[in-house]
Model the fold of this input.
Amino acid sequence: MFDSFHHSNFFRLIGLASVVALAGCVPKAESDVVVYSALDQEFAMPILDAFERTTDHDTGVISKFDVESTKTVGLVNQIIAEQPSPTCDLFWNNEIMHTVRLQKLGLLARHDWNVDGGYPRDMMSTDGTWCGFAARARVLVVNTKLLPDPSTYPTSVAELADPKWAGNCAMARPLFGTTATHFAVLREINGRDATLGQLRAIAANAKILSGNKQVALAVSAGTVAWGLTDTDDAIIEKDQHFPVAIVYPDQASDEPGTLRIPNTIAILKDAPHPIAAGKLADYLVTPETEDRLAMGDSSQLPISRGSKFPPRVLPENPIRWMRAPFEDAADEWESWAKDVQAIFE
Done:
């Protein structure tokens, strides 16, 4: 596994090789903050650099990124392994389920999150240990050459199990990432047995690919007519002028709505630099940070009502969002993962 550390001023002076050598070291400045980030470095670093520029010169950011495909799992496992003597101050996760797992393990500190009164309750922990912001949505991406008539587009995640789409729709293997989170949430809404039955039907009906990006690529190439993916992967294909449309699923009154999976910020319990971590946490969970991520290539979806930039991935019509029981969905994660793996291995 390749890990990279970055301290912006230091990095510019001595290069990547020396920065990597800092792995596991405690920063010299008491006000430095160590961030483990599962958000891609290209998106996170400009924001972290901006934080350094807007604070006093004594506050620095040392960031650790994991570039493996299961990067979130790797960072979470490292946080768990470091529990007796934490190195990380703040965890910036690009999803939510493993943040909730750290919450359940008692590894996160409470924080007074400065968000507006109308902030969605499923985007904040019940105990103040994490806050969500800048989400991706779970959407259907459709090849408009294969399905030229919008009236024929799929409208629900459940259609992945519909025999009329046999071999002509796709989903990522639901063992990691947002697809795993999605079906854990559906388990809480629809029940364990019903969701396992749905997954068996999907496994027999849809093409199961290695990840959400691969689903979006298969749809844009016309390998399948449509698939379930994330907005950040879908918008890339649309921006590159491939023949794709984005459908926000499950909008009918008897359906659960479209799932948003936010970035999450959490301060580690017993963090070496809690004051600096709190300052950075407050900086990240703001409408301004959400607007920066909304304007970027991944077109992330602001949660705050104070956001001023509508991301291009959103349609003109309002979306009915799912009220997601993330904390309940993290319960019994290991046994649930084993049941899902038995279907898809």
